[in-house]
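Lab notebook, bench 4. The sequencing result for the construct came back, and we need a structural model before the next group meeting so we can plan mutations. Quick request posted to the team channel:

Model the 3D structure of this chain.
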Amino acid sequence: MTRILITGLKEPAGGVENAVLAYTDNFDTNEITADFAFVCGEVSFADRIHGESFYLPNRVRHPLAYRQALKAIFKNKQYDALWCNYSGLTNIDFLKEAKKCGVPTRIVHSHAARHSWGNPLMKYLVPFFHNKNQKVIDKYTTDFWACSKKAAVFMFGEKLAERSTVIPNTVNTEKFRKDPALKQAVLKEFGIPEDAVIVGHVGRMCVDKNQQFLLDIMKEVAALNDKAVLLFVGDGELKDSVTAYADSIGITDKVIFTGSRTDVDVLLQAMDVFLLPSLSEGFPVTVVEAQAADTPCVVSSEAVVREADIAGFTTFMSLSESPALWANAVLEAASTTVSGGAQKLIAAGYDSKAAAAALQSFFKGESEGV
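Done. Here's the predicted structure in token form:
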């Protein structure tokens, strides 16, 4: 039995979590056991974890307890691989401990193409520690993975990026295929009229998702079409400020905040267009999911890599453009009927079942690369 440890995921579940779970959901549990280590509270996706879960104390508030818990994980279990899913290299403790304990395969998987921070102080500390650890990362890492070439360069630097492997952010395409009955269920749940134009957004409420600008766009959309509503799926640290901003610009009646949901595949059935004006992304799994559901996308050209337009119905807009221009693009995309997204994703290698088999083969040592 091959045993791996996965770290770097957090709560609430977002694109990174869903990208990783899309693989582990399809692992053969008779051949591979995937344990997870978290530096957060109980996660909402615990039912999708078939191995053990370890919850470490906060590193800053409880440094000694954190260090003891980290050491105990590797002392009590013998792992064949460590799979670190990172948006930056501010903390590489797991890698250092894994090497010290003789874990043979140690992977850093980059899921971001730029820095992010939660408060002004982190604006300086995050880049400082990232750059410091980037200089030594090759001492502790055996395999370099990334969701895109851009994310590889950001995480590892130009030289190490050449040694990296792009791991597709896959989805279970079958779950996202259009079903009129599911759309009707969503409309009924939220009291949305049949003739509404539904703008969808799925994302953690954080700085990177640029959700005040998202709401500015929605205000312009509503001014152009009074039947438009925003189905906003997500939760996070900026929940209070995001909801307050919607109220301050007078569009509360046009926004449905669903909170964190585990049925994004169902909610996408109701969306006429998917909107993602992010400041930073790696290779957003939500855009892949939207394409699997045959939902046109309007995304920021600064954050979303062009490779994400797998099915050919993604519109790229610059964040320097006005909310009014974005609104025009959103309504144009919403009026477009597209199809064949799932088939195109499968052909391009973005279906999770087939991709998971290749990853499992790598972890079992049956292949040298993914």
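The domain at 173-347 is CATH 3.40.50.2000 (Rossmann fold).
Will bring this to the meeting.
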